[in-house]
Amino acid sequence: MTAIAAYHRVAIEAPDGAAALELERRLANLEPTTISYHGTWVVDVPAVVDTDEIDAAVQRWLADVGASSSIVLVDGTTHVVKARRRHRAANADFIG
After folding, report:
1. What does the angle CA 3 – CA 7 – CA 28 come to, to the nearest 5 degrees?
2. How far apart (Å, rounded) are the C-alpha atoms in residues 31 and 89?
3. Which residues fall within 8 angstroms of residue 22, CB to CB, at 6 or more apart?
4. What is the pLDDT of residue 4?
């Protein structure tokens, strides 16, 4: 029996237009669209199978653009994704 993939519609709020376009570029393989809706920038992804992959990409993107969190809608259900903090190596990490 073949499993049928469930597709989800995902919308991610961005802090500004430049950040939205950067996320759109990162998710290019999913064919996203960036729109401005009532003054809010949103990256819309129409067909996503693995929403965990989107959350991980959004966490990295948030850290890179310096934002702490973003609102993500999956099939109309809202949740907040927080930036993934990056470990900054201390000098002791390089001393053997």
Report:
1. 120
2. 35
3. 61, 64, 65
4. 72
For residue 96, the model assigns a pLDDT of 55
User: Coil, strand, or helix at residue 47?
Assistant: strand
- Using alpha carbons, select from 27, 69, 30 the residue that is nearest to residue 49: 30
Q: Provide the total of helices (H) and of strands (E) in the chain, helices listed first.
A: 2, 5
CATH class of the domain comprising 8-82: alpha beta
- Helix 17-26 to helix 51-65 angle (10° resolution) is 140
For residue 6, name the pLDDT band (cuts at 50, 70, 90): confident
Residue 79, both tokens? 């949740």
pLDDT tens-place string over residues 30-87: 999 999 988 999 999 999 999 999 999 999 999 999 999 999 999 999 999 999 876 5
